[in-house]
């Protein structure tokens, strides 16, 4: 198979907040470098950052501090966080939010006195979430895209990454094997530095928030490349995904946390509030607690018509709700629901991968010339991400990665010859399904979602995880055998579905293995057979690696580099 080769100094996989910030910072640090952004869809129109409704956590207001933001992040993460990464997040968020407004042109909501308005998000001791109504992600991505378009940043749209290709001499990453979806032809992109910023996308669950094209591609490529991934069992479920009924892609769409932060109430089928039965913070408890509480209420037989619970906002005043949450009110209305004046059915929905590639403070990884940022990485959030910390994570570490890659390329950047055997194996994996007997990919995708929802979901047991692991292994075999008609390869969506499903099953196996290994309950990971949290002072995180097609699980101790369990960075006066 003829293989076209493209060279660029810096290759960025993904065009969400992490990828675009990395491109801007790299060009600012070294304008002479060739920077290329490769994206599975269209730049500015895809990715999860654009879908962010809630906002951006940052300590700005009097009474708040980076120490308070840090402690909220660590305690929310149940002490599994890499504390140095979490500290970098809260400190540089202050820099990045000013960069967003003053340099890139973002408009965030203001108070009457002109200060930035910050709203309440669950799990925080201070209202610190900066926002643009409930359409914050669109504001950020639109402004970032405008800045990319006016700079000399090359774009490879409708290109999907297939595999990370190491160098023949073992010195690190040589480049990335890509598929030009417009032509159906492969190409190798060689780069002196590459950023993995494809985002997460736990769409292997029955109810999920990301769009269907988000299929954990970056995590799957990292696993195949033998990289270590930490905290994969920590899949965050957002408590309030829209339950719009079967057969609509609107089911699973997030109704943002600001609703509960503003005083929204969760009601069961009897019309009764139930959250205070589970947590003294009620609806403002952390996402993991609210999600589990909803599932317990459903299990008790108090589910609403479509199997969820209701969220109620009308007691806050319909006009106020329409004004404050305009985007969500309109979204619900499109589906026939009245968020401002009535009841809307919701259910926990798979939202965010806290786990990911192990990376350092400068976003470098164990593979030289490969960097990672955003939802492809693990360690920042620990066992539970606070709402509003996600887009902060992407933009903070995206900027860090751009600066670091520019420095690395300027200092010692060079192209490496790729390992041809890895290229051949990757081409075979991607192209061998073409022309083989086809199967029902939609049925397999549904089977995957059922397995993950029922056995590797919000409430887990050893028995269920063992059942899930066996089913996933069987499903992986089915996917490997299924083919795709080899007709027109241009924008062949069935072929893309096949590649997507393979990645999802692979990452699902990693999630299941990590969940099996963790025999205590932490944050988003809840074992009904091990409901207690183990000793925080001896906390370990899980590490997943793939070797020879098999998944290897190990653990590593958490380093309490800034604060130990039972201690705080806050003075008594500040508390």
Could you estimate the helical fraction of the residues in percent? Answer: 25-40%
> Overall 3D geometry?
globular
Uncertain residue ranges = none
Our Rg estimate from Cα atoms comes to 23 Å
Largest sheet: 7 strands, mixed
**Tally of helical segments:** 14
Binned strand content: 15-25%
How far is the N terminus from the C terminus?
A: 65 Å
Count of individual beta strands: 19
Alpha-beta classification = alpha/beta
> How much is the average pLDDT?
95
Question: What characteristics describe this protein?
Answer:
single chain, 575 residues, alpha/beta, seven-stranded mixed beta sheet, globular
Protein described:
The longest helix is centred in the C-terminal third of the chain and has 25 residues, at 493-517. The strands form 4 sheets. Strands 1, 2, 6, 7, 8, 9 and 16 form a 7-stranded mixed sheet that branches. A 5-stranded mixed sheet has the order 17-15-10-18-19. Strands 11-14-13-12 form a 4-stranded antiparallel sheet, covered by helices on one side. α1 links the parallel β1 and β2. It has helices at 17-29, 66-76, 83-103, 136-149, 217-224, 258-261, 287-299, 318-324, 326-334, 389-412, 420-431, 441-455, 462-481, 493-517, and strands spanning 4-13, 35-38, 56-57, 118-119, 129-130, 153-156, 159-166, 173-180, 185-196, 229-230, 235-242, 265-267, 309-312, 343-353, 356-358, 370-372, 377-378, 540-547, 550-557. The mean pLDDT is 95. α1 (17-29) runs parallel beside α4 and α3 crosses α10. The chain is 34% helix and 18% strand. It has 575 residues and is of the alpha/beta class. It starts with a strand and ends in an 18-residue tail after the last strand.
